[in-house]
Amino acid sequence: MDDNEWWGLVERAREVAGDRADDRDAPDDPLPGALTDVLAALEPERIAAFAVTAVQVTDSAYRWPLWNAAHLIEGGCGDDGFMDFRDGLALLGRETFTRAVADPDSLAALPVVVRMGRGERGWIGYESLSAPVTEAYRRVRGETDSLAAAVEAALRERIRPAAPEGESWDAEDDEANRRHLPRLAALFPD
Q1: DSSP per-residue letters across 118-167
Q2: Percent of the chain clearing pLDDT 90 (strictly above)
Q3: Residue 49 half-sphere exposure, CB side, CA atoms within 13 Å?
Q4: Which terminus of the chain faces fewer neighbouring Cβ atoms within 10 Å, N or C?
Q5: How many CB atoms lie within 10 A of CB 188?
Q6: Closest CA relative to residue 72, chosen from 162, 164, 166, 180
């Protein structure tokens, strides 16, 4: 599955979710269900291809500057948290995702991040893009073992990043954060 098709499917789900597509914190978050429905309309092989492309997309965001931005926004961010952050960032759509990977400080303009900076509810992260993929596949095939095998086989042929790319700095260093992520540091001063 190419990137354009992948992002098109995400955008279709975002359209169904409407004005609630940008915040994963709500208990009745409509986006995961919308994505499941969009994917369940595909052939099983396309659902598996979506899962493989999802890994490629989120791997492209495996960057220190973005991880440090996630650390500021979420008040800390370990390995699992950064995986969730990247999955949720992908659900924000291609434009937001691409801009954030190139300039993590751009996240300061997102309404959900502004709310979080004020101490209000909100969350960018999403526990796993594999959840809607697995549910869609289960609806179509009645099982998920063949999905796991197909994704594993496809990923075996790919080179995945061993470590984050980009410039790293101590995410606890306020001065470094102000220098590298000035708008986010202003929103999250502590």
Answers
A1: TT-S-----S-THHHHHHHHHHHHS-SHHHHHHHHHHHHTS---SS-BS-
A2: 93
A3: 13
A4: C
A5: 21
A6: 180
Residue identified by tokens 């924000």 is 92
What is the spatial distance between Cα 49 and Cα 172, in angstroms, rounded to a whole number?
38
Could you identify the residue written with the tokens 């969730």? 84
Instruction: State which amino acid sits at residue 58.
Output: T
User: DSSP secondary-structure letter at 144?
Assistant: S
Tell me the CA distances in angstroms from 21 to 37, 121, 123, one per residue in order.
15, 15, 11
Dihedral through CA 53, CA 58, CA 61, CA 62, nearest 10?
-120
- SS3 assignment, position 79: helix
User: Contact, 30 vs 17, CB < 8 A?
Assistant: yes
**pLDDT band per the 50, 70, 90 thresholds, residue 27:** confident
For the CA atoms of 34, 149, 56, 69, what is the dihedral angle to 10 degrees? 70
Amino acid at 42: L
**Cα 157 from Cα 123, distance rounded (Å):** 33
Residue 127 pLDDT grade (very low, low, confident, very high; cuts 50, 70, 90)? confident
Task: Assign 148 a pLDDT band (cuts: 50, 70, 90).
Answer: very high
Neighbours of 146 (CB within 10 A): 13
Measured in degrees and rounded to the nearest 5, phi and psi for residue 52 equal -65, -45
Other CB atoms within 10 A of residue 109 CB: 12
